[in-house]
Amino acid sequence: MGNSDWSFRRVLHGLRLADAWVFWPALAMVLWGELSPAPLLPEENDKLLHFIAYFGLSWLGLAACRSRRNAFFAGLFLAIVGGLVEVAQGYIGRDMSLYDELTNIAGVIVGGLLARAIVEPLRKRYPAR
Questions:
Q1: What is the 3 state secondary structure string of the chain?
Q2: Which of 9, 16, 64, 124 is the most exposed place for a label (fewest CB within 10 A)?
Q3: pTM metric for this prediction
Protein backbone atom coordinates (compact mmCIF):
# COMPACT_ATOMS: atom_id res chain seq x y z
CA MET A 1 0.00 0.00 0.00
CA GLY A 2 1.39 3.34 -1.04
CA ASN A 3 1.68 6.48 1.00
CA SER A 4 -0.88 8.21 -1.24
CA ASP A 5 -3.47 5.48 -0.41
CA TRP A 6 -2.97 6.17 3.29
CA SER A 7 -3.30 9.92 2.74
CA PHE A 8 -6.46 9.54 0.68
CA ARG A 9 -7.94 7.23 3.32
CA ARG A 10 -7.34 9.95 5.92
CA VAL A 11 -9.02 12.53 3.66
CA LEU A 12 -12.06 10.26 3.25
CA HIS A 13 -12.25 9.76 7.00
CA GLY A 14 -12.05 13.52 7.54
CA LEU A 15 -14.82 14.13 5.02
CA ARG A 16 -17.02 11.52 6.70
CA LEU A 17 -16.52 13.22 10.06
CA ALA A 18 -17.22 16.64 8.54
CA ASP A 19 -20.46 15.29 7.02
CA ALA A 20 -21.49 13.91 10.40
CA TRP A 21 -20.78 17.22 12.17
CA VAL A 22 -22.44 19.45 9.54
CA PHE A 23 -25.54 17.24 9.39
CA TRP A 24 -26.88 18.31 12.82
CA PRO A 25 -26.78 22.09 12.30
CA ALA A 26 -28.24 21.57 8.81
CA LEU A 27 -31.08 19.51 10.29
CA ALA A 28 -31.69 22.20 12.91
CA MET A 29 -31.83 24.87 10.20
CA VAL A 30 -34.32 22.86 8.12
CA LEU A 31 -36.49 22.20 11.18
CA TRP A 32 -36.40 25.87 12.16
CA GLY A 33 -37.44 26.89 8.65
CA GLU A 34 -40.28 24.38 8.51
CA LEU A 35 -41.56 25.00 12.02
CA SER A 36 -41.47 28.80 11.98
CA PRO A 37 -45.01 30.18 12.31
CA ALA A 38 -44.76 31.98 8.97
CA PRO A 39 -42.83 30.62 5.97
CA LEU A 40 -39.38 32.16 5.76
CA LEU A 41 -39.16 31.96 1.98
CA PRO A 42 -41.72 32.58 -0.77
CA GLU A 43 -44.00 29.63 -1.34
CA GLU A 44 -43.81 29.68 -5.14
CA ASN A 45 -40.91 27.23 -5.01
CA ASP A 46 -42.09 25.32 -1.95
CA LYS A 47 -41.64 21.83 -3.40
CA LEU A 48 -38.22 22.67 -4.80
CA LEU A 49 -37.13 23.95 -1.39
CA HIS A 50 -38.38 20.77 0.31
CA PHE A 51 -36.55 18.61 -2.22
CA ILE A 52 -33.28 20.57 -1.89
CA ALA A 53 -33.42 20.58 1.93
CA TYR A 54 -33.97 16.84 2.25
CA PHE A 55 -31.58 16.07 -0.62
CA GLY A 56 -28.86 17.93 1.28
CA LEU A 57 -29.70 16.35 4.61
CA SER A 58 -29.72 12.92 3.02
CA TRP A 59 -26.44 13.57 1.23
CA LEU A 60 -24.75 14.60 4.48
CA GLY A 61 -26.29 11.93 6.66
CA LEU A 62 -25.93 8.96 4.34
CA ALA A 63 -22.42 9.85 3.17
CA ALA A 64 -21.34 9.87 6.82
CA CYS A 65 -22.62 6.33 7.41
CA ARG A 66 -20.10 3.51 7.16
CA SER A 67 -22.53 0.72 6.32
CA ARG A 68 -25.51 0.35 4.01
CA ARG A 69 -27.63 -0.72 6.97
CA ASN A 70 -26.85 2.48 8.88
CA ALA A 71 -27.43 4.52 5.72
CA PHE A 72 -30.85 2.89 5.28
CA PHE A 73 -31.85 3.77 8.85
CA ALA A 74 -30.52 7.32 8.46
CA GLY A 75 -32.69 7.76 5.37
CA LEU A 76 -35.68 6.26 7.16
CA PHE A 77 -35.06 8.64 10.07
CA LEU A 78 -35.10 11.63 7.70
CA ALA A 79 -38.32 10.48 6.03
CA ILE A 80 -39.99 10.06 9.43
CA VAL A 81 -38.74 13.45 10.63
CA GLY A 82 -40.14 15.05 7.47
CA GLY A 83 -43.53 13.46 8.13
CA LEU A 84 -43.57 14.50 11.78
CA VAL A 85 -42.69 18.06 10.79
CA GLU A 86 -45.59 18.15 8.35
CA VAL A 87 -47.95 17.00 11.12
CA ALA A 88 -46.48 19.56 13.54
CA GLN A 89 -47.06 22.34 11.00
CA GLY A 90 -50.79 21.78 11.41
CA TYR A 91 -50.48 22.71 15.08
CA ILE A 92 -48.57 25.95 14.51
CA GLY A 93 -50.89 27.50 11.97
CA ARG A 94 -49.21 26.27 8.81
CA ASP A 95 -50.63 23.87 6.27
CA MET A 96 -49.85 20.18 6.46
CA SER A 97 -49.14 18.76 3.03
CA LEU A 98 -48.84 15.19 1.88
CA TYR A 99 -47.17 16.51 -1.27
CA ASP A 100 -44.50 18.23 0.83
CA GLU A 101 -43.78 14.92 2.57
CA LEU A 102 -43.63 13.07 -0.74
CA THR A 103 -41.19 15.71 -1.98
CA ASN A 104 -39.14 15.29 1.23
CA ILE A 105 -39.00 11.54 0.65
CA ALA A 106 -37.96 12.05 -2.98
CA GLY A 107 -35.13 14.32 -1.80
CA VAL A 108 -34.03 11.73 0.76
CA ILE A 109 -34.00 8.95 -1.83
CA VAL A 110 -32.19 10.88 -4.57
CA GLY A 111 -29.66 12.48 -2.20
CA GLY A 112 -29.00 9.20 -0.43
CA LEU A 113 -28.59 7.16 -3.59
CA LEU A 114 -26.24 9.72 -5.10
CA ALA A 115 -24.17 9.99 -1.92
CA ARG A 116 -23.87 6.22 -1.60
CA ALA A 117 -23.05 5.84 -5.31
CA ILE A 118 -20.05 8.10 -4.78
CA VAL A 119 -18.98 6.97 -1.30
CA GLU A 120 -19.20 3.18 -1.59
CA PRO A 121 -16.74 2.74 -4.49
CA LEU A 122 -14.25 5.00 -2.70
CA ARG A 123 -14.58 2.98 0.50
CA LYS A 124 -14.05 -0.27 -1.39
CA ARG A 125 -10.94 1.07 -3.08
CA TYR A 126 -9.55 2.64 0.11
CA PRO A 127 -10.86 0.48 2.97
CA ALA A 128 -10.42 1.52 6.59
CA ARG A 129 -7.77 -0.32 8.55
A1: CCHHHHHHHHHHHHHHHHHHHHHHHHHHHHHHHHHCCCCCCCHHHHHHHHHHHHHHHHHHHHHHCCCHHHHHHHHHHHHHHHHHHHHHHCCCCCCCCHHHHHHHHHHHHHHHHHHHHHHHHHHHHCCCC
A2: 124
A3: 0.86
